[in-house]
Design goal:
mainly beta, 2 domains, seven-stranded mixed β-sheet, 1 helix, 7 strands, elongated
Length: about 190
């Protein structure tokens, strides 16, 4: 196994090209230390994360085990675990975390900072939601004066610090309400 990893590393290093404006392909084995192109080189095309890849910017199709991006991702991402500061597109994973989500996030555990779009999972969580959460447990966590949920939550338990929208679930919680706990349906506009 050690010889195989060493051979793959040498092959990737041999294929590495001098700095270019972008790369149509990234193959990552162990992140920054063992991947086809540098983290600073934008990947526009296909990124394969055999174990882990790390890039500042990725646009296109992202496949594999663990993806890690510091600034933005645009396109379709299919990984076991994925993290990005900004996701514009569709992310499907076992665990997905995006600091800023503009699109669709589908994962058993879906976590976002500012979420604008759709989150689907067993548990969904966002600091602020402008869109829809569908899951067994849905929540928002920012304490602010402005509504943390602007949209729709559908689940067994729905939680918002402040709601401007609709909650459908067995237990619906709006911390800003005079009656914070309601069964089945809560609407606030």
């Amino acid at each position: 196994m050690k010889k195989l990893l060493h051979s793959l590393t040498l092959a990737l290093l041999a294929l590495s090209a001098p700095a270019v404006s972008f790369s149509p392909l990234q193959i990552g084995i162990l992140g920054e230390k063992c991947q086809l192109v540098s983290p600073e080189t934008p990947v526009i095309g296909l990124r394969l994360n055999l174990l882990r890849s790390y890039n500042d910017t990725v646009a296109g199709l992202d496949l594999g085990l663990l993806s890690d991006d510091t600034t933005t991702f645009s396109g379709l991402r299919l990984n076991a675990i994925s993290y990005s500061h900004g996701c514009n597109g569709i992310a499907i994973a076992l665990f997905d975390m995006s600091a800023v989500l503009n699109g669709v996030q589908i994962a058993p555990i879906a976590v976002a900072g500012d979420a604008c779009g759709l989150q689907i999972g067993l548990g969904t969580d966002a600091e602020e939601l402008h869109g829809v959460q569908i899951g067994l447990f849905n929540g928002t966590r920012t304490v602010s004066c402005s509504p943390t949920v602007r949209g729709l939550q559908i689940g067994l338990v729905n939680y918002a610090n402040s709601l401007r929208g609709l909650q459908l679930g067995l237990l619906n919680i709006d911390r800003s309400s005079d009656y914070p706990y309601l069964p089945l349906l809560r609407a606030s506009f």
